[in-house]
Amino acid sequence: MILNHLNLAVTDAGEAADFLVSYFGMRREPGGNKNFVVLRDDAEIVLTLMKDKRTAYPGNFHIGFIHESEADVDALNQRLKTDGFDVAPPERHHAWTFYVEAPGGITVEVLA
């Protein structure tokens, strides 16, 4: 059995998709609309984003993107800061990691 996809409820599917495409290299699949976007990554994992104005996740809910190196994590952290996102510097926890609040109301972990 293979996990086929994960659907996330977001306040703005387009903004959330643009963020994931710009910073994490996801690709938009054909079709979709302003309320529903299908994304795919290099491992062919499908992430669907569905607009829902009542979006609320538990405090520790997040999605994560593993990078090749700590330098890659540092570079993305700086890029997000430069682009105006409120991100703390990476720290050593279970990995070299930081979190960012993405448009649409989801939290993203970046780690190596």
UniProtKB/TrEMBL annotation:
Q: Which residues cross the membrane?
A: none
Which ranges carry the VOC domain?
2-112
Mind telling me which InterPro entries this protein's record contains? Fosfomycin_Res_Enzymes (IPR051332), Glyas_Bleomycin-R_OHBP_Dase (IPR029068), Glyas_Fos-R_dOase_dom (IPR004360), VOC_core (IPR037523)
Q: Which PANTHER family match?
A: LYASE, PUTATIVE-RELATED-RELATED (PTHR36113), SLL5075 PROTEIN (PTHR36113:SF3)
In Swiss-Prot or TrEMBL terms, this protein is called Glyoxalase
